[in-house]
Amino acid sequence: MESAATSEMVKSKMCSDSPPRAMDRTMLVLFDRLRSQFPERLLDLQVWTRGRAYEVFQPAPSEPHQSDTSKPRYSVGCIEGLLQAITMEVLHQRTQVDLFAEASSYLPELRPAIGTSASDRLKVVHLLAHATGFHSTNKAIIGDWQQVLEHLRTKGASFPPGTVCSWNGLGRRLLEELIIRVTGKAMSELTLTTIGELGVFTQAERRLESSSEDIMLELDELARLIRQAFRHGGPAARLLTDRGASIPVIRHPVSPRSSYPIAYASGLAKYSSGLWGQNGIGPGYSLAIRFTSDLEDMIAIAAAVPPLARDLVISLVETTISGAVPVQARGPIGSVIGCDWQEVAGTYVADDEEFIVVELGCDLLLCSVWRGPELLARLDLRVTNGDILVADPRWSSFQVEFFKHPESSVACLTLGQVTYIRSV
After folding, report:
1. What is the CATH number of domain 77-296?
2. Cα–Cα distance, 401 to 105 (Å, whole number)
3. One CATH from 1.10.3210, 3.30.720, 1.20.1250, 2.40.128 for 332-422
4. Percentages of the chain per state (helix, strand, coil), in multiples of 5
5. What does the pLDDT look like over 369-403, one tens digit per residue?
6. Per DSSP, what are the bridge partners of residue 287?
């Protein structure tokens, strides 16, 4: 028998005239389990599958009671990259911006800053896919435009643009400058206008610590926007159907439990489960949206838990709605491709703040992750048949890959969604 709390907090919205299904009870049991695991914490979870919508809402103790007609809006954080991808697809269809043109055709000072070769390869479409080819720290891109150009001029490209995804905020900074020049509007303003045209009217709030604005959305507003934008014939449907639109983060995905994207199609991430979406961090909570290519299944979550816990919830929901056997924690998390694993030892660098030292052991790659003098983590990777890498179960949500640089053939290392290059 369901508890009063469960019947109040958990709802199953059924299609008209459809009989109850076993999935209804299964979802109620799952929601009860989640509420018990995260007591007295914000948990806003909405699931759409098999023609039904399910939701559980548990407010934070400090929040006022939410009525059925009053739902919280969340600062979408990095999910804004997904909203910007939709916006750019709309601008491309209106011929206001050519996504496949060189970024320097809109920002001519990029060519002398990054060089002719990189400029010829860097397309507008690469900016949201973390595929600029440049490493960058946040402090290098928060200054004025001349400071950004100086960083590019000094740093130089790490990879040929458009070939390797490595997460940082440089591409979005370049895109913001491009959009202001083309439209005369800030990217956040243009994004709000675009999603409003798709039927989602929302707001932005200015951050206290900067002049930037955060887009605020309810979870069901976010889901409605996804359906409108990615439906067949929708303005962003190309990102789901055009295989050439995706640039790999991982070239040979082997980690079924990884919570990191394996590829980006503009600002849209693809995950090892086959779902699409994005993640975000708001003030005191983490968010995520996941959906299938046919939009039949969708998961949206905002919860006052760390990203790892949020991703575990998503994994539980995915397993529940698919009926798949849960993936065991002990399993592969990566591979060595195109390299001899016994020759990948060395120091790998990315943005000048973090680096990874890789040492050889007996059938092991011993990885130490550093930020300056601070040791952040040690990750021991056991090399198995086929150069598949296995780690302790606590690292099961990670993904790792060693591969050769596309031009120099120097060893590279992707950890999570940042790619490092061996320097020593």
Report:
1. 3.40.710.10
2. 34
3. 2.40.128
4. 35, 25, 40
5. 999 999 999 999 999 999 999 998 888 889 999 99
6. 280, 302
